[in-house]
């Protein structure tokens, strides 16, 4: 797996607003995976202090998901992308809502985390299509 | 490429200190790739204000590289790993130094960015080996 | 002016993602005004260190503009708003781009700051219409 | 209301420590309004996880209130203001204490939030008087 | 020296707004020392990129000085202290101004750093007197 | 005590990654003392909201402990130090683990806080030895 991830022909993508030209939906996905892990651990643990910590950290991770998605939506995607993929605005708006109070911030619910992950994957699929073109 | 990255059998890894159990050296690598992109763009641009912005953002990204590596070193790797891989401490110390003042923070030098990326890849290789075991 | 701003019948609006139900486009506008002030001061000052500081602080303020706008777009505006105001997605996307590298982050240009302020005002006008309804 | 807020003769005020010359007590007030909203929502909700989130976010918002007030006290107000308004130091000290552990941080109490709002309004009244002069 | 600093009878003091009851003016002083070090290194170095980094980091350290001082002023000192030491408000206001745009933020000047350090020491002297009482 | 701390022959040490050359293990210790204070106050208080606040703030302070220690390990200590003190890597790794989920983050336990303080003191002892050399 390591070979695949770091083989010379595969560029890992990221972002900064210089812009450096490096973007990657994996940044949002990693944080969303973390949220799913948190929810799973909280479900297996009765300690109220642990639950408090789980909520604190979930809140931070969810904020990071929102941030990474907003960055893609504003900084990576350009007008021609939005013309070609008219669903993109709604997709990002729904994904960031799923990372917020009406989504994983507001619940310790593995299903909501899965919905968030699925939305991020939809965005990632479009992202990688645009990189091919 | 997308299929590979998000195929159901491949877990994207990350971290939070609940701990959620999700870690991934890609987080450090993405920021290091961004630094390489910044250095490349600054080399092609004469505007002093652009160079100032490049240095500001490089500073932030380098701090993120350090943070993601420190998290792996403290939170993911345990005593048995350090026994099995006695070079790990030095590897992490050198990698984080390469992300600091004596490395990419202190220079706009593509070679230093490549050295940092190579160190991160060495760490990632060990990381993925420990995940197999 | 003070009386108007703090008269008991006028609610100052803001945001947190509890959600607390308090939002206000003024948060973005205040940071954008600050950017305009920074650009104006940098234009009147030859000291290169001052210019460096101006760019550092402009970068931070621009990031805050983006953040405050993203919060409105994701957390305040709901599906019915996007149906009623089909231009909203594009408006937010353009406004946040104007706060980024292709806008005030990438330039010390009062005209770009004015364009950003005008976009924020367009958003604010819609925002206040939805509060009346 | 929008017309009033964004009419060309009314300057929205803010701050950065360039200084950009833009300040506005509304920044502190908006966060304090948010705290009041949080307290109100927590009072209507029995879910312990919601209460935990309310406390997390209240903590952050209260810190922002303190920060915005400290900025006004240090960066906007000058020696002549403190001579003309000898109560200013105490006013700011009490207002920031009301935003701290002995105030809204330490309690989910709407009355304390109202006391904080009242102090901010006292400060704002003096602020706008100094802007006229 | 170590023995003195960490001897069991000497409490190192700090702060959090629980409050934890631990405060220490050393936190502000350490950051101010750092600023003095930055200014000294920038004076010995002609590289414009180094100077840019020096200004970036000085800006952050100065903000930390302000923050640590504000915390002492609001959270540690109480009404009886302000009665006993009527100069305290002015002292803190001047110290935080020296950490801002009209002080070390606005200049690469060792004298200004020394003035800031001297003000912090004046505050520290009063602080330690109140701890004895 | 004040005289000792701020006497002209005693340098207070700190850090920034310019590097400014100013480091001090006291920064980590102060935050660890704060954690101990938090744990003690939480033990004396039955209010669940207070306990929630205690956990929120302990989480932040523990993160600061980790950060200050990581900075010393990467930025202050150099290869010759690690040769002379072969236990240093393990010491830092254990200290930062004690500041994390398996240490003070994961428990409200005064003993764990004391273990963390003891580790920081071991590091500090070595640190001050290297400063003498």
Task: Describe the protein's architecture and organization.
The structure is a homohexamer of 133-residue chains. With 133 residues, chain A is an all-alpha fold. Chain A has one domain (23-132): Up-down Bundle (Four Helix Bundle (Hemerythrin (Met), subunit A)). Chain A is built from 6 helices and no strands. The first copy, chain A, has helices spanning 2-6, 26-43, 48-76, 79-84, 88-98, 110-132. In chain A, helix 3 (48-76) packs antiparallel against helix 5. The interface between A and B is large, with 40 and 40 residues.
Number of domains of chain A: 1
Q: What is the CATH architecture term of chain A?
A: Up-down Bundle
What is the CATH C level class of chain A, in words?
Mainly Alpha
Mean pLDDT of chain A: 89
CATH topology of chain A, by name, is: Four Helix Bundle (Hemerythrin (Met), subunit A)
Largest interface chains and counts: A-B, 40 and 40 residues
CATH superfamily of chain A: Nickel-containing superoxide dismutase
**In percent, how helical is the residue content of chain A?**
55-70%
From the helix content, strand content and strand pairing of chain A, which structural class follows?
mainly alpha
The string of secondary-structure elements of chain A, in order, is: HHHHHH
Radius of gyration of chain A: 16 Å
**Total beta strand runs of chain A:** 0
State the assembly state of the protein chains: homohexamer
Shape of chain A: elongated
């Amino acid at each position: 797996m390591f070979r695949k991830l770091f083989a010379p022909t595969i560029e890992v993508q990221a972002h900064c607003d210089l812009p450096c030209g490096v973007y990657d939906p994996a940044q949002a996905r990693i944080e969303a995976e973390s949220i799913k892990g948190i929810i799973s651990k909280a479900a297996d643990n009765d300690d109220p202090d642990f639950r408090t910590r789980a909520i604190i950290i979930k809140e931070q991770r969810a904020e990071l998901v929102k941030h990474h998605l907003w960055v893609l939506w504003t900084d990576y995607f350009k007008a021609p992308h939005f013309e070609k993929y008219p669903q993109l605005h709604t997709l990002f708006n729904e994904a960031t809502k799923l990372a917020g109070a009406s989504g994983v911030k507001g619940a310790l619910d593995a299903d909501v985390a899965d919905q968030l992950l699925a939305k991020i994957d939809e965005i990632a699929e479009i992202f990688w299509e645009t990189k091919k073109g």
